[in-house]
Amino acid sequence: MAITESPRFVRADGPDKVTGSGRYTADMNLTGQLVAKFRYADVASARITRLDVSAAKAMPGVFAVITDEDVPDVHYGSPVPDRTLFARDAVRYEGEVVAAVAAVDAATAQSAVDAIVVEYEALPIVADLEASMAEGSPLVHERWETYDVGDGTEQRPNVASFSSIEKGDVQAGLDQADHVVTSRYEADGTHAIPIEPRAVIAQWEGDKVTIWTSSQVPFDARNGVCETLQLSANRVRVIVPHLGGGFGGKCGFHFEAHVAALARATRRPVKLVFSRREEFLAPDRRRESMIIDITTGVRNDGTITARTGWVAVENGAYTADSAFFPQLSAMHVAGPYAIANVFIESSLVYTNHQPSGSVRAPTAPQACWASESHNDEVARAIGMDPVEFRRRNLVDEGIEGPSGQVYGDIGVRRCLEAAVEAAGYGDDLPADEAIGVAVGWWPSFPGPSGAYIKLDGDGSGQIITGAQECGTGSVMTLRQLAADELGMDAEDFQLVYQDTSAAPYDTGATGSQTLLNNGRAVVESAKEIAEQLRELAADQLEAAAADIVLAGGNAHVAGSPDKSVSIPELAGIAAGGELLIGKGSGTPPEYPSASATCVGDQGMAGWAGPQFSCHAIRIRLDRETGVVRVLDVFAAHDSGTIINPVGARGQVEGGIMMGIGQALTEGTRYGDDGRQQNPALLEYKLQTAADVPTIHTTFIEVPDPNAGPRGAKGVAEAPNVPTAAAIANAITKLIGRPVRQLPMTAERVWTTSNTGSEQGGES
Amino acid sequence: MSFLIAESLDDALAAIAAGARPIAGGTDLVVGARHGKEALPDELVAIDRIDQLAEIGPGPGGIRIGALVTHATLMTDPLVVAEFTALADAAALVGSPSTRHVGTLGGNVMNASPAMDTGAPLMVLGAVADLQSVGGSRSVPLDELWTGPGTTSAQADELLIGVTLSSAPQRSGSAYVRLEYRRAMEIAVVGAAAAVTLGDDGTIAAAEVALSAVAPTVLLVEGVGDALVGRDPESAASAAAGLAGEQASPISDLRASDSYRRHCVGVMAKRAVVAAARRAAGEDIAVPVNRSIGIGAA
Amino acid sequence: MSESFDLEVNGVAYPVSVDQSRNLLSVIREEIGLTGTKEGCDDCECGACMVLLDGQPVNSCSYLAVQAQGRSITTVEGVMQGDEMHVLQRKLLEEGGVQCGFCTPGMIMSAHALLDRTANPTPEDVRIGLSGNLCRCTGYAKILAAVEHAAAELG
Lengths: 763, 298, 155
Known about the structure:
The structure holds three protein chains of three kinds.
Chain A: H1 14-19, E1 34-40, E2 46-52, H2 54-57, E3 62-66, E4 90-91, E5 97-103, H3 106-115, E6 117-122, H4 129-133, E7 159-167, H5 170-175, E8 179-187, E9 199-205, E10 208-213, H6 218-229, E11 236-239, H7 256-266, E12 270-273, H8 276-281, E13 290-298, E14 304-316, H9 325-334, E15 342-350, H10 364-381, H11 386-391, H12 412-423, E16 433-444, E17 451-455, E18 461-465, H13 474-486, E19 493-497, H14 514-541, E20 548-551, E21 554-557, E22 560-566, H15 567-575, E23 580-584, E24 608-622, E25 627-638, H16 645-664, E26 694-699, H17 723-735, E27 741-742, H18 746-755
Parallel strand pairs in A: 1-12, 8-27, 10-11, 14-15, 18-19, 25-26
Antiparallel strand pairs in A: 1-5, 2-4, 2-6, 3-5, 7-15, 8-13, 9-10, 9-12, 13-14, 16-24, 17-18, 17-23, 20-21, 21-22, 24-25
Helix pairs in contact in A: 6-7, 9-10, 10-17, 13-14, 16-17
Chain B: E1 2-5, H1 9-17, E2 21-23, H2 27-34, E3 43-46, E4 56-59, E5 62-66, H3 71-74, H4 78-83, H5 85-93, H6 97-102, H7 105-111, H8 119-124, E6 128-133, E7 136-141, H9 142-145, E8 146-148, E9 151-152, E10 159-165, E11 172-178, E12 191-198, E13 204-212, E14 219-220, H10 224-228, H11 233-247, H12 258-280, H13 289-292
Parallel strand pairs in B: 1-3, 2-3
Antiparallel strand pairs in B: 4-5, 5-10, 6-7, 6-10, 8-9, 11-12, 12-13, 13-14
Chain C: E1 2-9, E2 12-19, H1 24-31, E3 50-53, E4 56-59, E5 72-74, H2 87-95, H3 104-117, H4 123-129, H5 141-154
Parallel strand pairs in C: 1-5
Antiparallel strand pairs in C: 1-2, 3-4, 3-5
Helix pairs in contact in C: 2-5
């Protein structure tokens, strides 16, 4: 197949994806494969009084029906081991798996699921974040006090984890203020909505299982299988075929163990494919709802004298990877501002809803929306332009931030200026238009990571990496890093990735960390091969290895480009002797220290490679209906050095559209029965191609020495952070008061505008 | 399940008389079955190849739009766009390009959803439903056809073969406007259609307004003629908004509260009257109004 | 009840014998074995299952396979022109309009239908033409640019 290569960066997996030849998990089938289906709780909170699978088991074509009794007795979850693979005794959210069926086809499996008898005794439904934290509230986990949380904080009703940031003396700070502004904001939960619903296939051979799964974090998925089915790591091989997006929704360990258990019970390969409805209801990764109270003391000159915050973050029924959300949300309530006196406390609260987890910049868009809306309220209270107010308080090089971290060279102020200048902030606009501005930040996440590279005898390369490509292109960009080290072209490399038995560990497509960490590993691998090539070339060219330069596909002697040998020739020589193999991992960048006092420290107060962003967004409001249309987004981002500009812009554009959805149309609605009312794409409204604004992206490239290759930081999550906040500030300019509930639906905007009712709390 | 592809109208009517359900594009049936709303019928007869049902042209009593005419055709057909513009507005807003290519007017009408976009335009344009069975044919005004959400007065053996509309007098125009939270892939939260004829002095000489998604069926607003005639378009539009808000009996659901719906349907009625009057005065407002003027403009 | 008929996909007539209730998507994927067409929802809301039926875009998840007999179906696998990529495929790669790729086949089919019926689409035509295909990765911007550039190249 002749693929016309373009001069621009083209993804290695691009041809697979545009021709339809790329295989995603649901596209694969194995001989003898059975179909898996789950029986879900379908009630939000109840005790199981009867569970009878005998009729289902007896049905023709049904190979297995398994429940809690059929898997090892393991409570899992880190740091709170609060769950089991299958419901035991009680169900705590509607999408909890009660039983799993493997049958000859989907219809038979569904019939068997329907034939399972489950009887319940209703338990109270815990749904209100504030009420559930009060003494005497019904507990989502009856034996909560026996769980080992291990963070040393006092256990409170339904609070899965707690953290605070405390610095200075907030009372003294408030006493110095000319104005004190208090706000409450509430955000509804949302969903990641990868367009690919997840799929899992498991096949046992002897005592080893291979699992193909649509996971963003194959090593995490493997570890979950190992923990719950009690297998060693080398008996579980997780392979991720092409992955149809994740956005955090496919982080963590989900249903791999359920399917593996079915495959073991039936001695057959078993395949699970989720419907869109299941994708809405069952996974333990959705974006958390939040309540945010903020109080700020401010002097008339714009100086913030103190900030206090109280945050409740919805955990849902079980603790997925959410334990660090309190401290992360507290950082976003503080924001990238130099505030001397800070006291923010944040709690992760159990409810009988779907569990929350790391969806693209968890807690940040909501908390940023609240704090940046609040900052505009503070600016209004002293009659100061909100951009000027930010100029007076933003952190900068050498300045101490809200958690006591002192920053190096950072681009936050340049982001603000670039965005407002591009937007023409301050120019006259039509009466139904306004520009809102918000600043956001997001950490980078250093961590362990590994890769191998080999050059085969013809000089073509393979990068074998533990990193996971979820669509962002970050794994694709690794080719460029290897090529640059070896004086080769990116197209000289193919990638072998997302196979836990082939490649060394990586955290996966989570925390925007692939390029940051795996980039380091790939560069180190390439350096090893470069060393080998220089030794080989030194022999051939009769020069010292240290004088060999790798460039343009050749090795030549420094200063004598004519004295050269091609890399394929060197590879051919190596193929008959010591093979060209490189390995890399390297030491992750350190987490900086933060001087604030943090009760229940979750490691989120000192940020390595902090990313900064500013969005200035022009909207139009239909005043009669409250419908908001986003016209232009001016985005400026400091994500350090940008290695793949096309890919990075794609991250910004995608993050912004997700942010617009979250701002205006996306939100999960729950009924009094604790069940989702809109688990379908007709009623849970994503933005469409017809809604796209013009997006103008500027990168403020400030290389960060304590981050990834060439000073690169992460970029995938940051664009999602300030979008809703900027839209909110534009809406407020047009209607005179903030909409205190997210999403800011047309009806909420109209209601806020016309009745004076500020839904969600008093100002 | 049995499935027959009808080659002719007679084939189709015979199959329907024998108990088969007609299927054109089939989207609603297939999606409904998948969601467990209603199982696929045991007997289906595909009518999508009966070419005579896909025609638009003169018929007995006016212009006949065949039941198989798709939304994609309605939104671009020169006759529909010129004479029955509100219907083109509505068709252009339905779903996505693919649902507009597959979805038919007949399917829409017989689904009898009060939220259907084409319903209010058909009402204000005075359309009648042409039903045929092996036993004969009859024409039914739409407000008699639609008896409730998802129910019609058609007999089980009757097939909708089309709707018939009469051309309006000179200086007439129509428009359909709906509330939408995003610019595509929407379902009407509320919508309003207006058909207006202007007098020589530019005031309203005749008018009808109908509403989507604020009652168990598409609602023809009563008293519009009396209230609007003789007024200039702007004040007529305000009057229409008032009547719409009064007569609507919306529900609260995921998409909107009843009070917001009641308010917004008035806004939509006002905008529909204004747009219809502008068209009646000769202004060319491209189909659909939603994406030509106001918040949804490109 | 099962029915036997020929289904013409990408110019090849495939004899199939399937239950009459089967949707076109499942028959294309499971019986014919072309998995480029994806399932992203089950109610015409995402567009991942888009195919062309006699040249018009259709959500194959919500169309009965038996209704497609006698008609001509094009899937993403039928878009290549011999060994050459279609200009839409090429432009999507060049512009960076592909990320996870799961919406890509459906996008290509909708864009194909748009360019077939509209020679010189305006930016608004392209936005509306692709509005039935959800993408969560790209924010659409680079997809829209790719289709506009493809249209320009086709003239």
